[in-house]
Amino acid sequence: MTPLDRDPETYAEVRDHSFDGIQEYDNQLPRWWVYKFVITIIFAAGYLYWFHFAQIGKNLQDSYDFEKTELAEKLRLSKPPEAPVSKEELKALAQDPQSIEKGKAVFATRCASCHGMEGEGVVGPNLTDKYWIHGGALTAIVKTIEEGVPAKGMVPWKSLLSRDEIHQVAVFVKSLEGKKVSNPKKPEGELSSEE
Amino acid sequence: MNRSNDTVFYDDKIVRAFLWATMIWGLIGMVVGLLIAAQLYYPALNFGIPILSFGRLRALHTNAVIFAFAGNAIFTAVYYSTQRLLRTRMFSDFMGWFHFWGWQLIILAAALTLPLGFSQSKEYAELEWPIDIAIAIVWVVFAVNFIMTMKIRRERHLYVALWFYLASIIAIAMLHIVNNISIPASWLVSYPVYAGAQDALVQWWYGHNAVGFFLTTPFLGLMYYFLPKAANRPVFSYRLSIIHFWSLVFIYIWAGPHHLYYSALPEWLQSVGMVFSIMLWAPSWGGMLNGLYTLRGAWHKVREEPILKFFVLGVTAYGMSTFEGPLLSIKAVNKLSHFTDWTVAHVHVGALGWVGFMTFGMIYYLIPKLWKTTLYSKTLANAHFGMATIGIILYAVSMWASGITQGLMWFATKADGTLLYPDFMETVIAIKPAFAIRAIGGVLYIAGLLVMFYNMFKSIHRAAIVEPEQLTIARLNEIPVESEVQSLVSEPISFKIFLKRLHTAIEGWPLVFTALSAAALMVGGMVQIIPMILTEVKVPRGVSVQPYTPLELAGRGIYLREGCYNCHSQQVRPIVEETARYGPISRAHEYMYDHPFQWGSKRTGPDLHRVGGKYPDLWHFRHMQDPRTTSPESIMPTYGWLLTSSLDFNSISAQMKAMQRVGVPYKTSDIHDSKEKMKAQAVEVAERLKEQGGIENVADKEIVALIAYLQRLGREASK
User: Fold this and answer.
1) Within chain B, what is the greatest distance between any pair of CA atoms?
2) Kind and range of the H or E element at B186?
3) Position B1 confidence tier, pLDDT thresholds 50, 70, 90
4) In this predicted complex, what is the ipTM?
5) Contacts of B262 in chain A (CB under 8 A)
6) B267 contacts A123? CB cut-off 8 A
């Protein structure tokens, strides 16, 4: 290593010693680097003061509660409570093959894992017989889908599916009633002839 | 002057041994990484075989690349450069070889036990207690050998590379021992003495600083030796070395809690972790500046010399990831990035770019030196550089895209405030293409490594037998430290010069240097951990947290064994979109009997802290048998063996006894009839499975224990 007395750019001195041939200049600390360091230290002190010593800033729980209230307000303003779907509306939908087809698609991705691809029942009950645990009327089916049966492991679908999707699945499920399937689960609930 | 000369032989044989170990373990660790990357795209690559499943192999990958690849690379650098910087052979050849073989045996033990499912289930500290003890012994031998080498040195002052080695050796000893204090239940099962939030704090104090003092500071030491040597240029600034060394070792150790934002960890600790992470930005960049500015006037050499190319990109990657680190440590950013692939991108820029490229640069530098030969092909070294660089870019960009995409999808809401993607699976499907691109990046990186292997074989093949180099070196001229201290006060000097001279004096006084760096390293940990250990968990009025039943505890053991924490968190953060998705916020008291904690750091699958009671037992049964029957697009491995493996009823009492010793309030009578209670609960679960789906003969299978544990999760919230 050639001995360089001074840094050719900054004229900083080189230390009078080398380690296994490695020399060291003694350049000034880059100013921008020093300023950056100082600023982060000031920020640190300010942050701790603001949030912990003076407690001006909201803590996690408070900001969570604040957001939650804000959200509830937003929800209240954004949509007036919808009237529950009527029997007649659902009956009309049940006559529409397109809606049933759409319901079938949703059923395949969301429901089949527990109720079987054909609705024959796996973890969840058989949907092809005429027995219903929570009511076989279209409006009752809609309600079961919306609210779920958390005690038995059926999740409420209200937040996961749109209103239309729920109605489409309901009419599809109703269309399964009485269908012959290869490997049906034994019937559960009560015989129902409601529509 | 009365100076006599010594004849010295440097020990390069051990350096060559560590270099080979670096190459071989590096390849193995990276290939395992590639396999688990591919598994995320094609879950079929888990093959339904326990030892090849993601949850177990991910620990093998991280341990192999950190402790085997980076570890052996560090030892290569330390053994080569320390001898030259102190102008002496290492203190003891025996200790050196004990260190070498001890370390390789530890890695071998890890490569066997981790796939077999023996795991403490704390990230990067998965190895079970007998291996932990072996690590501590080998590490102490290494430390003693290093410190004694400083004692027999023929160079008065310690060069900056040695400061970094020294701090790393002390820090790792401290972190490893404190984090692994546990009570064994058997030869390969143990429980940490810390519980819940406490365990989380200690673990991430360890986890963050393992990155700091295993993957950062030793490699800074490596940089300070090999970069100026390869560039043949003086280091940019001695004072920058001093300032950034001390600020780095002091500040680094405080930043651990940035892995635990929005968790049940006390909020003051989260904030302290955040501000120290931000203050860490400048000290980290000090190292990058000293590296890059050293190359001033030598950039034309970078164009021609692959060694310097690797160093420049390595240092640049270091600069990028140490900017990204503080950025990710801002709570608001971390809210989005935490649990996503953004973190994965961040660590891999550091691992592949900084650690990998500094190691490769060093190896290309060492091959001609250690084997007294020339490098077989510069063209191939350049090809390696190109392939690996493209590999890193593909890896990082795909994981950044994946992490940000998924993070935004988790938080996306409709106009009415409900979740836009309530189904977790949709967010997985969206990022699957990124998994494929990441794997391609990995293939390129490994292909580059294979090119390096070939180049190395060819170079060594041409080398003659290596004779140890004989050197004549003057003995250390005895200047008493006192005289250097004297020079501080003998003449009027400015404060700046006083400080610099003081530091130079300390550099000639290794024991003082060791003591000072140990002190700088200990402050942060003590301020954070001691109050946490002294305070008791606050349990809300009217709530009584029950310890796990024997069957649930056995199920938890299976959860730990399979490494479920690698993909599932157990921590619902106080964020509205998150409570909408998973349920009530997780509180500290819910974890008070969790040895170890299982908060997780990544959500490849959904959070599980509120999964208890969400689905029927049968759902879990079918889901473990084949996740795609219940969740069609799932990328989770199948766990068929849980349905057929016999549940171990015999070790439960030993496990409960160990739990009792770490502070879980089991009564002696509970332990006495634990086996009967466990069998009784197993029969209950089995009967439910029979009732729900006609499943027969599973009361003595592992699946019932796991179901019992999963169904128990998060039930404290509803009490």
Assistant:
1) 95
2) strand B182-186
3) very low
4) 0.93
5) 60
6) no
